[in-house]
Specification:
Elements lengths: L26 E2 L5 E6 L3 H12 L2 E3 L5 E4 L4 E7 L11 E5 L2 H11 L4 E4 L6 E6 L5 E6 L4
Parallel strand pairs: 2-5, 6-9
Antiparallel strand pairs: 1-6, 3-4, 4-5, 7-8, 8-9
């Protein structure tokens, strides 16, 4: 099967439609935006951790530090030490691959604990961010 020759020359036109940004690789396991406290002076370490290691995008706009995930935003309330925490529950985070995250954690020399759940294949990594907030990181499973 052969194509017929064109009767007029083809010129490619630029696509003027707005580009849809690619989804971020990380998701928060919450029902809304999350807020965690941090001591003043940790902004660079928080950026290196959340953007460099976990894959969040830095969001600017309000007076708080914010990191955008694919579904929600993580807000950081910067306060003067000593911090008062109301609870020590871990914030749930989904990443595409726990193995890739583990390699980044080893490379950055960040302490973590790998946990196995009660069900087969249920694994997670528990660690703290530079501000001391607990995170429970799991694999994102395609349904």
């Amino acid at each position: 099967m052969d194509l017929e020759p064109s009767t007029r020359p083809f010129t490619r036109q630029p696509d003027r439609r707005p580009r849809v940004p690619e989804p971020l690789p990380v998701r928060l396991v919450t029902i809304d935006d999350a807020t965690v406290p941090a001591a003043a002076g940790l902004e660079r370490q928080l950026d290196a951790f959340y953007v460099g290691v976990l894959g969040f995008a830095r969001d600017s706009g309000d007076d708080r530090i914010a990191y955008r995930a694919d579904n929600f935003t993580l807000h950081i309330d910067v306060k003067e030490p000593p911090l008062r925490r109301d609870d020590v529950r871990a914030l749930g985070v989904e990443v595409p691959s726990l193995a890739d995250l583990e390699l980044k954690l080893i490379e950055q020399q960040i302490d973590y604990t790998r946990q196995r759940g009660l069900l087969p294949g249920e694994e997670s990594i528990t660690l703290t961010d530079p501000a001391g907030n607990w995170l429970n990181v799991v694999d994102r499973r395609a349904v």
